[in-house]
Hints:
Elements: E1 17-21, H1 26-37, E2 42-45, H2 58-63, H3 68-86, E3 89-92, H4 106-119, E4 124-128, H5 134-148, E5 154-158, H6 169-179, E6 182-186, H7 193-196, H8 198-209, H9 212-218, E7 232-237
Parallel strand pairs: 1-2, 1-4, 2-3, 4-5
Antiparallel strand pairs: 5-7, 6-7
Helix pairs in contact: 1-3, 1-8, 3-8, 4-5
Amino acid sequence: MRIPSLKPEKPCASPPLFVVSPHLDDAVFSCAALLAAHAGARVCTVFAGTPADKRRTPWDRAAGYDDSTQAMRGRWREDDRALECCGAQPLRLDFLDGQYGPLPDVDALTEALNVEFGLARGSTLVVPLGVHHPDHVRVGEAWVALLRAGLVASCIVYEDAIHRAAPGAVAKRLAALGAAGLHATSLDDTWSPERLGARAQALRLDGIGAYESQLRAFGAGFPADLARPERYWRVART
């Protein structure tokens, strides 16, 4: 475990963030500096459930776990440490990671997110763009459904670390949002690394380092993409 060299900022006066994370690492991998700069955020991880029976997958073995039960326990602990680094609080749904079985349908996921976000009154919704990985794509479909149904007026969208590196994935997704009647406005000038500050950037590195098992699973293929700046858009209906 890496010991953070800095403490997160005190909660901001602006509305708290409600950040949707597909897996137990995506929010920190993708927007840890944002979390650290807006301490007090709630991170809602969608695929955080543990299978009733022990399952063995290549990814979990590469991460150093014997089975799904051991893996999820370990990943929860890592996530606790990472979110503590960033001054964020965990909220975990019990949907299963796609490596363990079929994904939930869009309606079920949309309903769950609507309920949880509804309980976080006054918060700003922050969601993944939803590219490349099937689990991320499904979460992306759910928040689009929230917007198109008028259940939320707008949201902040972060670029999915690692998966954004798939050729053409980001451009294709932004085009699809436009075709669905949604307008995306870049927030690079608002939440650039320089504006978020050196303190948030340092805490970002501590948060990412807390996911030791997931970084281990990448092995020699450690994703250089994690060093790229965070990127954001505001998305609303046109």
